[in-house]
Write a structure and sequence with these properties.
Layout lengths: L2 E7 L6 H8 L6 E6 L6 H8 L4 E5 L6 H11 L4 E4 L5 E2 L3 H10 L4 E10 L5 E5 L3 H4 L20 E3 H6 L11 H11 L4 E13 L8 H12 L4 H10 L4 H15 L2 H11 L20 H16 L3 H14 L3 H13 L3 H14 L4 H8 L22
Parallel strand pairs: 1-2, 1-4, 2-3, 6-9
Antiparallel strand pairs: 4-8, 5-9, 6-7, 6-8
Helix pairs in contact: 1-2, 7-8, 9-10, 10-11, 11-12, 12-13, 12-14, 13-14, 14-15, 15-16
């Protein structure tokens, strides 16, 4: 089979045997382990279990995930490849689906993932590719937000990732999403499947839970792309002009460019737009435009700082339309800045009642000075996020 399954590992002796055992069932695939400076028995355990099928390459010095992934990409001598994290599990049969999709012309293949708890092994939730992403063979909507079940848990044409420039050694956290966005910008085609081919094991201390680093890394990845070029990709994919503008709003907020976001917001949801209209009933935020505009405008104003009265008025308007958790949280932050602590605490407590376990509201309630603002509407689709 013209497919290599690549595992990058550093000090993963506690999970590597489980990961390797799951890929050994794919008897026709090449297997490659990238040793990123392991100081434990990761490599010896993997080799002992692999029945001579595992090739090992080692980085010169530990360089982290981007460097390890690039070494795996460089070492791959098959046309197609797929990643498996050293603490995750491969589900037998997935290789055939990947190869079939890529042989039919796709550059990237994504399918459903089961998210399981690392301690108990119990299923937390099933993550699927949303319908509004699957509609596009070149999913420009990913510039709006990473809606895929996983951005590294993919099958891909090796040449497509190499032509996109490979992995950026300076991008830690969003390195896989970064290369995907660059591939999309070059016109890479995607195929999507319904079956579950991967188990992602969730641990509280996993690399992807470093949310501050993830956010900074994502901002840097998005800054590599011109807004108007992204708009063009969206329109080319068949998105209406206003939907394309909403993509740019989200992109600008992730980049930390709030004034730019406000400018695009006026295109996405003009002041004369019907506030009761639901622009995308099956989209990422199937809520009325009045709520979306008020929430996003109030949030951008709160993030800009110095405009708390305006921000509170917008968030109050959103709360009247729908008292959702993210509105309550952000309004609480603005109240706290204005010295209205009792109202702030009431907002955060109500946010936690509406959405138990909501991370930003919990942090703000514990320490009102933190001021954790939720920058985007909470996901309405299942994700691996602690938000739901």
């Amino acid at each position: 089979m013209n497919l290599t399954i690549i595992i990058c590992a550093r000090d993963a002796e506690s999970t590597i045997e489980r990961a390797v055992a799951t890929v050994l069932r794919e008897t026709q695939c090449r297997l490659l382990l990238v040793d990123d400076g392991c100081r434990d028995s990761t490599v010896s355990r993997a080799l002992a279990l692999s029945e001579g099928r595992l090739q090992v390459v080692s980085t010169v010095s530990p360089g982290g995930i981007p460097q390890a992934r690039q070494m795996g990409l460089d070492a791959c001598d098959t046309e197609y490849a797929a990643w498996l994290d050293a603490d995750d599990e491969w589900i037998s049969g997935r290789a055939n689906r990947i190869v079939e999709a890529l042989e039919n012309g796709a550059d990237v293949y994504s399918e459903a993932i089961d998210l399981v708890d690392g301690e108990s092994g119990s299923l937390l939730r099933r993550l699927e590719v949303p319908v509004f992403v699957r509609m596009e063979s070149n999913p420009a909507r990913l510039f709006e937000r990473n809606y895929l079940p996983g951005d590294s848990q993919l099958g891909f044409r090796v040449a497509a990732f190499r032509e996109a420039g490979g992995y950026d050694s300076e991008t830690f956290g969003a390195e896989s999403f970064d290369i995907l966005l660059r591939a999309i910008a070059r016109g890479a085609s995607f195929a999507f499947g319904d079956k579950v081919g991967y188990r992602m094991v969730a641990y509280p201390n996993s690399v992807s839970r470093n949310l501050m680093r993830q956010r900074a890394s994502l901002a840097n990845a998005l800054k590599k792309h011109d807004y108007e070029a992204v708009r063009g990709l969206c329109v080319q994919a068949g998105q209406p002009e206003r939907v394309a503008a909403w993509v740019l709003v989200s992109m600008a907020v992730f980049r930390g460019e709030m004034q730019v976001a406000l400018r695009f917001l006026d295109e996405a949801s003009p002041v004369d737009a019907d506030p009761d209209e639901v622009l995308e009933p099956n989209g990422p935020v199937p809520l009325c435009e009045g709520w979306r505009r008020a929430f996003q405008r109030g949030t951008c104003l709160a993030l800009l700082g110095g405009r708390d009265d305006e921000a509170e008025a917008e968030l109050g308007r959103a709360a009247c339309l729908k008292g959702s958790a993210e509105v309550l949280n952000n309004r609480g932050v603005v109240f706290a800045r204005m010295g209205r602590i009792a109202e702030a605490n009431a907002c955060w407590m109500e946010a936690l009642r509406v959405y138990p376990g909501y991370a930003d509201a919990k942090k703000n309630l514990n320490n009102p000075q933190i001021g954790c603002i939720t920058t985007h509407p909470l996901r309405r689709q299942p994700s691996r996020s602690e938000y739901g």
